[in-house]
Amino acid sequence: MLRPLRLKLSLAFMAATLGLVVLVGGSAYASLFDYFEKDVDLTLMHRMASQFQLFGFSVPEELVEAETAWLAQQAGIGGLNSSASNPISVSEGDESEEEEGGEDGEDGLSHLQHELLEAGYASDSILVFVLPLDENGTLLFNPNPYPLPMQPDLASSGAALDNGSDLRFGRLPSGERVRILSYRTSPGENPAVLQVGRLLEDQDEVLAQLAASTGLAGVLILVLVGAGSWWMAGRTLVPAQYAWDQQQTFVANASHELRTPLTLMRASTEVALRGDVGAKEAALLKDVLDETDYMGRLVGDLLLLSRLDAGHLQLDLEAVPVDGFLEDIQQQGVKLLSADRVTVERDSSRAFVLADRVRLRQVLLILLDNAIKHNPNDTQVHLRPTVLDRQIEFTVEDQGPGIQADHLPHVFERFYQSEGGKEQVHNSGLGLSIAKGLIELHGGSIRVESKVGRGTLFTISLPRAKSEPAGPR
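Now predict its structure.
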């Protein structure tokens, strides 16, 4: 009985752990992403400042500040290497080397240019590329010692012409991300726009590895926490499970023990009523008989609930014809219900429901009895079947006072008694909980809808059987 609670506790621990893993992993990912973005932006602004100086343009103030910050950052990580860290120096070195000897290759590329081309954009010193553009966004020439990885970003250059500068993310045709910075130069000058960019493939690799490792670690942690929480919950619930088992055993034993004296009391009362007794004594004996019958039903309900809780109740499933079954309910329920106040509405289809005939009859009689108790006089209770593709629904509808919205979630709880019924005497509040347990044991569901002053509707959904009876299972 406490196994679902153990499962819920374990899932709660796992959900909390998952939230913590997502929070920590997401924070690490976001922090690294933010660090990369700021570092790239600073590098791009440093390169842009170098290009402004190279072309002889006045360097904007924000680029001067960025240059100062970049130089301070480089000094903080071990000093500056102008030939490796400064792209301008690389370009100048390339020119001098190319002048000194063109014998390095028939294509006119120097030895350093060949190395750069082979390395692609994997080296941090050559990750940034430069695109000098005219006012139309056309590339004027390629100042880079290696082929450009992308064409000019016209949207960024247009935004720079309008606003002075533009910083955005872009994508190469192959899908890799790139960070693009564009600046407008002096009016009437060429290039009109300087655009620098940096491929982010290396950073995306690091971020992907971080996400993968965090995901793998999260899965392992979840497995460990799930196993540990299942074990801990089991150990914690051992005393509660023991107490529950003892209670169920007591209820079952007490129910069995009470049946014998109740049967004897009823038989003795019936014998006394057949004798020569006065009217007053006869009334008292009838009260005893009524109370004995009520106690017998209560004991039976408690015994049934204990069997449901323990999982010891077995169903005899068969294909039950809906039409014949409802007709049988209406005829056999005369003694238990006010059958003249129950209207059974059924369609003409020859559908079959997969159910235990005895237990389904018990459920429907519980619902009908409950509806009649809460129904006003001179009104009808309607029992309707609805045949669906894979299910059959039985609805029991009354025209009673209804159930308030805050009471609806509790109607299937044990010993719950809704207000508004005409007959509250001898109502243990176990009927609907028994009905719910029996329907769920069938693999079906039961739900309730109600509006105050407009009645209550109970709906049972059960699996539909084949058109031919399948026989007992």
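The chain has a mean pLDDT of 79.
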